[in-house]
Amino acid sequence: MRKWSLASRLLIGQLAFLVCLSLGLSLALYHQAEQDSYEETAERMLAVAGTVAADPFVLQAATAPDPSSTLQPFARAVMDAAHIDFLTIMAPDRTRFTHRSDDQIGKAYIGSVDQALDGHSFSETYAGTLGPSVRAIVPVLDPDGEVVALVAAGITVDRVAVARNAQLPAVFLISLGALACGALASYLLSRYLRRTTHDRRPDELQSMFTFYDSALHSLREGLLLLNNDGELVLYNDQAAALLGLPPGGGGRPRDPRTLGLPGPLADLLHEGRSAEDEFHFAHDRILVVNQSPALAPPEPGAGVRRRPLARTVRRTMPPAKRLGTVTTLRDHTDIEALTGELQSMRTLTDALQAQAHEHANRLHTVVSLIELNRHSDALEFATRDLEQSQQLADDVVSAIGEPALAALLAGKSAQARERGIALAMDLAQAGSTVPLELNPGELVTIVGNLVDNAFDAVQGLPDAAVKTRFALVDSSGRDCFEITVQDNGPGITELDASQVFDQGFSTKDPKVLLPSGTGATGRGIGLPLVRQAVLRLGGTLQLDPGGSPGCGARFTVLLPLPAADNLSASGSPASGSRGVSP
């Protein structure tokens, strides 16, 4: 058995239903026409018989000694004028005074007369001498109300059927018209369904829906579907998790700007513009967003046109219809964390390379002094260099209890020496165990990006300098770890200060946005990453744009420590500040 598509099944089912409906309608109209014909004939016979019975001539003739001699010509004239089959005037005892056939005069009338004898008019269908007929019987009353005669007027059923059959063409035309209109509507609906369902069978549609729904909710990437009005129509479970949306992914279309999404991301979704690997922040996540139009697939046979009087077929594909937009979301948070760790490793590698280069120069100096037999000078030079390097390492490690952050600062110190930047670190009030209470990855992200940003701000200045300060402070009765990074660059303008934490903005090149890591490896993403890390730790981030001579931008981060493990700021090392310079 051939498997029909949904559109074909619906078309055939509708046509079968329409045929049955048309047959039923035809029968109903036929019976209605027949009933109307009988009722109309009965009313007409009542009118004719009533008119005859009310004629004074009939009353006078019916009471005469020989009624038939005067009433028979009268009855024939009425039958011819009224186009009826018979008009019988009879005595109350059924004796006929008139009849279409003269040989029936004087015989008994065949039919019911009881109601007429009681003074009432009525109609009936009865089989008489002329066959079945529709007749009406009306009494003839004298001035005293007594029944003196009866008048029966009728038309045979055959003539009634002729009148009924005259209405059948109209009945059939109505039925055929209804069938044609229904068939046309079914055909148009079938075409629409063929185009909408791509002429697929119900089992295929069910399988496609099941597979697509499974694929939608099995994707590791977030997927959102929006209509042409910029309203969110469908999203999968991963998108709900990334954006903090309620699970389910369906229901009434909603404006993404009303779902509590960050402004730039909500605007992107609503506008429906194309986007490729754009970075957006959503809550505490970094998302890579791709968005493109959702186009309807071409219809079967679309674009094929045969030119008149030509054998060639010209194929011109019509423009694809836009259905909305498709948006994919990838969680880049873990990648950024790994990139931050990689950046720390690269910083350490650069520091080791710088130290190796520096130690090679110093080693050559020591070797040259030994070759010149200046052994005491060589020993003094090597000892002094070792003490300086060891002092810096000891100060950083003793003041910063977190190994990753200590390694980062040591690497940044070596990197600053190589780039000709004076890096000063105030570690006197840091407290050797404070950073242990904080997430090391977040600390590396915050410090690394702020220091890299300061390095970029002073790069190329003759007296380039960056100051960092780490301290345990008391803020509103709660111990907090404070990080301050300041440079002596040109500062940040008020306009830039209002946008510096926006994703994609960079004072070095506002148009540059690289999809890579933290700090100097990307543009326009380092400071937003700092802000996100600070927010995740429950802290605050303040910016002093600076701008006065020798006073550049200053970033201050305040990170609260867990309440159970708070350390009093007064219990930190002695107050005062000692600079540790390379």
TrEMBL record:
PANTHER family in the record: SENSOR HISTIDINE KINASE DCUS, TWO-COMPONENT HISTIDINE KINASE
Residues in Histidine kinase domain copies: 354-563
A molecular function (GO) term: phosphorelay sensor kinase activity
The UniProt record lists the keyword Cell cycle: no
High-level lineage: Bacteria, Bacillati, Actinomycetota, Actinomycetes, Micrococcales
Cellular component terms per the entry's GO annotation: plasma membrane
Topology within the bilayer: Multi-pass membrane protein
Record-linked InterPro entries: HATPase_C_sf (IPR036890), HATPase_dom (IPR003594), His_kinase_dom (IPR005467), PAS (IPR000014), sCache_3 (IPR033463), Sensor-like_sf (IPR029151), Sig_transdc_His_kin-like_C (IPR004358)
Keywords: Cell membrane, Coiled coil, Kinase, Membrane, Phosphoprotein, Transferase, Transmembrane, Transmembrane helix, Two-component regulatory system
Source superkingdom: Bacteria
Subcellular location: Cell membrane
PAS domain sequence ranges: 208-247
EC number(s) given by UniProt: 2.7.13.3
Catalytic activity: ATP + protein L-histidine = ADP + protein N-phospho-L-histidine
Name under which the protein is recorded: histidine kinase
Regions annotated as coiled coil: 335-392
Transmembrane segments: 168-190
